[in-house]
């Protein structure tokens, strides 16, 4: 065997009848693949926080009179009793009314306002981001409406449109419209111009650029704006109904406030809160599904 070959081989010689046994060099170590975090179907820490709030609430009922702070169990019983029909509300001009029917009325207004506000605010925001003349006209109007507290406008809507459904519906629609206008405008501004330039280089016209570049590129931020707008729309709708409405969960809160029914007020507020949280969860799932292409993680090598 040549000397170079012998020198390059890592061998160990054992004296066993003159036989030399060679030991191969150890293989290089391979680092284990990183473990991916498994997404749980529920928010465990969110449930822990909710449980702590309920425990704190229960603890406060030990030192606060039930007339001022009812216990969580009493409120849950009240929700169950008044969910479909609340008999005591008939004395206040609300016959055959319960939390379920009132929430349907409130939810209907919120959904219609979200659809109208999104359908008007999003196109205006996208157009204003690409057309300076339109922006110079719309920005002062939207800025003025956005700086006025929305609750200050509520009495004027009640005077102009009365206590019917349209007053609360238009009030929430304006709120959603302003938010979606701003989000759509900023989303279009944040979109890298290179995408539109490349599309035009390949012969795309304006309609194709809007359809294939502008809308897909701004969709994640617009959907995020819709979620934020919905989060505030629930409370705004309830307040508008409280100030003057014939139906809705806000009307129930207004009636119960007049009779100092603290337990009923808590029950109505928790019903509203649960519906708003469930709606936000569903919207978040829908947004995640619609933008799943954006959140996909690249595969990691070993």
Q: Give the overall silhouette.
A: globular
Structural class of the secondary elements? mainly alpha
Low-confidence stretches: 1-22, 297-302
Specify the helix fraction band: 55-70%
CATH class: Mainly Alpha
Beta-strand residue percentage: under 5%
Measured distance between first and last alpha carbons: 39 Å
Integer tally of domains: 1
Number of helices: 12
Per the CATH scheme, the topology name is MetI-like fold
Q: Can you characterise this structure?
A:
This protein has 302 residues and is an all-alpha fold. It has one domain: MetI-like (MetI-like fold, Orthogonal Bundle), CATH 1.10.3720. The protein is 69% helix and 0% strand. It is built from twelve helices and no strands. Helix 4 runs antiparallel to helix 5. The radius of gyration is 31 Å and the shape is globular.
């Amino acid at each position: 065997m040549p000397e170079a070959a012998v020198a390059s081989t890592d061998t160990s010689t054992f004296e066993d009848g003159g036989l030399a046994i060679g030991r191969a060099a150890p293989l290089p170590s391979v680092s284990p693949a990183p473990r991916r975090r498994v997404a749980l179907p529920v928010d465990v820490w969110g449930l822990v926080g909710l449980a702590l709030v309920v425990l704190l609430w229960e603890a406060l009922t030990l030192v606060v009179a039930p007339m001022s702070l009812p216990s969580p169990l009493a409120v849950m019983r009240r929700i169950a009793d008044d969910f479909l029909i609340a008999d005591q509300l008939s004395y206040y001009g609300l016959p055959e009314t319960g939390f379920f029917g009132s929430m349907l009325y409130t939810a209907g207004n919120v959904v219609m306002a979200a659809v109208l506000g999104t359908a008007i605010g999003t196109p205006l925001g996208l157009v204003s981001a690409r057309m300076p003349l339109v922006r110079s006209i719309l920005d002062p109007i939207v800025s003025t409406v956005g700086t006025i507290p929305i609750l200050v406008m509520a009495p004027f809507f009640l005077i102009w449109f009365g206590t019917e459904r349209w007053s609360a519906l238009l009030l929430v629609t304006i709120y959603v419209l302003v938010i979606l206008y701003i989000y759509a405008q900023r989303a279009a501004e944040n979109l890298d111009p290179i995408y539109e330039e490349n599309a035009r280089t390949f012969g795309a016209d304006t309609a194709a650029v809007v359809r294939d570049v502008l809308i897909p590129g701004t969709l994640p931020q617009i959907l995020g704006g819709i979620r934020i707008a919905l989060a505030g729309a629930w409370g705004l709708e309830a307040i508008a109904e409280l100030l003057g409405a014939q139906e809705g969960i806000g009307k129930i809160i207004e009636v119960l406030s007049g009779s100092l029914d603290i337990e009923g007020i808590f029950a109505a507020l928790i019903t509203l809160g649960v519906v708003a949280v469930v709606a936000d969860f569903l919207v978040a799932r829908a947004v995640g599904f619609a933008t799943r292409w954006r959140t996909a993680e690249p595969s990691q090598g070993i």
